[in-house]
Design a protein that fits this description.
Elements (H helix, E strand, L loop, with lengths): L4 H21 L9 H11 L4 H8 L3 H13 L3 E5 L7 E5 L1 H25 L1 H23 L6
Antiparallel strand pairs: 1-2
Helix pairs in contact: 1-5, 2-5, 3-4, 5-6
Length: 149
Amino acid sequence: MEKTWEDKYIAAFFAAQKRGQGIQAKAPSELGKGKAGILMRLCVEGKQTAGALGSFFNVGSARIAAMLNELERDGFILREKDEKDRRISYAVLTEKGEKAGEASWKYLQKTVHAWVDYSGEDAFYHFLELYGKYREISQELSEKGEKEC
């Protein structure tokens, strides 16, 4: 029996979720959803403001603030004030945060390289393009109150 589009979507979605959980599993257990992503971003880009992180992840300021507070409480980051403008603060990795972020980042790289090796660069870039459109549509539907989509 041929799979429907819905069947294909569900299979792909859960496979991607499983890989995402693998990335999360490389980080310490106290990191909840999204926090490993913040640590990876800080590993790659260095110190970041909450606003920059929120923009990158397309997450509201309240959610980013909550995650940064938890990361700071658990010893993964410190907050550092800007020397020129004390109103600005940056999230900076601690040694613990750097180790967790690097482990997650290495696993993510391994996963992405495996996908590219399997599908080819063009197909992978096409997938990323389509996934970006999917996120935009999901965001629009969510903003319209269609939470189930």
